[in-house]
């Protein structure tokens, strides 16, 4: 069984796979960090999102 890359659709097992899961949601698989960052850029997932820690 192979898992397609979320970004480029090639089987992630052929590369050095990276897995991302949002909360308890579905796991997304990527060939490597290059596909992961390209996906994030394309989807604009980091726009306006920043992990800001505030003490109060
Ligand atoms: Zn890929």
Describe the protein.
The structure is a single chain. With 56 residues, this protein is an alpha+beta fold. It has a domain at 1-29. It contains 1 helix and 2 strands, in the order ββα. A two-stranded antiparallel ribbon has the order 1-2. The longest helix has 11 residues, at 33-43. It is elongated. The termini are far apart. The model has no long low-confidence stretch (mean pLDDT 90). The site of zinc ion (ZN) has 7 residues, from loops.
Task: List the defining traits of the structure above.
two-stranded antiparallel ribbon; single chain; binds zinc ion; alpha+beta; elongated
Strand order of the largest sheet: 1-2
Kindly state the percentage of residues in helix: 10-25%
| SSE arrangement, N to C | EEH
What structural class do the secondary elements suggest?
A: alpha+beta
Measured between the Cα atoms of the first and last residue, the distance is: 48 Å
The number of helical runs is: 1
Q: Beta-strand percentage? A: 5-15%
User: Stretches where pLDDT falls below 50 for ≥5 residues?
Assistant: none
Radius of gyration: 14 Å
List each distinct ligand once.
zinc ion
Q: Shape, please?
A: elongated
Tell me, rounded to a whole number, the average pLDDT.
Answer: 90
């Amino acid at each position: 069984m192979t898992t397609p890359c979320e970004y480029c659709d090639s089987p992630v097992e052929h590369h050095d796979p990276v897995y991302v899961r949002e909360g308890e949601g579905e796991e997304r698989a990527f060939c490597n960090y290059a596909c992961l960052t390209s996906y994030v850029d394309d989807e604009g997932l980091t726009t306006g999102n920043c992990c800001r820690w505030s003490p109060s």
